[in-house]
Amino acid sequence: MNMPSERATEPEFPPLTEVQLRRSIYVAVLLAFLLPPFIGGSLMGVVGFYPMPEFYLIFFSYSGAYVLAVMLAALILVPRLFRHIVALTTLPRAEAEARAQRVFARLPWQLLASVTIYSIFGALSADFSLEHLGYQQYTLRDHLYHQFGLIPVVLITAFPIFFFFVDRLGRYLGPRGISVTAVPLWVKLLMLGIVTPLLIDSLLIGYYYNRTGYFRLETGVLWFSLRALAAGGTWLAWRSLRQGAAPLAAFIASSPNSLAEPIRDGLAPLSLDELGELTARIGQLLGTIVENNHRLTAEVAQRQEAEGERDRLTSILEATTDIVSMADPQGNILYFNRAGRSMLGKETNTEMGIVIAELHPPWAADLIFKEGVPTAIRDGVWSGETAILGPDGREIPVSQVILSHKDALGTLLYLSTIMRDISERQDVQRRLEARDQ
Length: 437
What we know:
Layout lengths: L17 H30 L14 H27 L4 H41 L6 H34 L11 H28 L4 H37 L7 H6 L7 H46 L3 E5 L5 E4 L1 H7 L17 H18 L1 E9 L5 E12 L5 E10 L1 H14 L1
Antiparallel strand pairs: 1-2, 1-5, 3-4, 4-5
């Protein structure tokens, strides 16, 4: 039987270390400064904006010096960007997320503006290089035409770099507890569904026009119709994505301290995709949490009620003049009420440290352990007249009731005893008997 490999159990997108993050930033910067001039410039050459293969000689002229100088300047700033990102993980979560949200909210536009400005002057340096090398002469109209042509090139080359950089940031910050929305899903869908094919078609139209010089009305109508279909399909895809994400969006917008029933019921999946499955799993997990919360709440209420009953019972026992005690099955005294402690000269129950036998004279202890306790264990209760020893060792006659307390399986938990001083009653009885004689 084939055993699953260790590699198969590794996550597809593991968290990044600081070393991997630094490497990713350098890669993103290098791609941002190499793809537009080399890949983008090649596309513009193929389309017809620049002569080919003479175009590649510009990198040994002004363009090469321009690309190298800007790229070196950008690489000098990379450590500062890296330290800024790493510093976010050292801040309290709320402060880190607020600062990251401010930075990343502007990040897409800052990157796009940087690449665009870099590409604008890159196109001008390419024009000057070709003129300096003697391959081409450009008018102002040609320079402007090249600027128009580099717009799709800039965006097409910038999108992959942007996605790469943001996703690598997510793999570093997310596992460290920093959650921000740098690129909403609708922006990604818009880029892939409308902008990218629009830019590619624009390049193809430029290629067609540069090669043939021919562009008729039906060409524009066809291009616009295809764009309308792309926009409609993207809107339907976005609507489907919103439908799948709607329960999660409602949950995210709810109070983080609330686990109310309506929120849990609202986490019913609305799509047949990974979002729907995720919604269902979160709903099940949240439902379990709510049920456990209800159970714990009920247990706490029952415990509080039991503690209230115990406190009320303790108040009654402390107020009564009868002596009330509790002992474990081994005969160790666990509790004496106020009357019992007063009789023994003790202030608290923790001062007891005595057993049942020590409370009674030998004859009474013998009666209790031979008759009282066995009867109470068997029948639940026993009553009789015994005696206890006062602080001075004097015997005090008492009427005594012993009760046994068992669990549901019949195991003895503890014994409780109620004793009442009958000294006066016996004195009265003796005086009556003496008078009758």
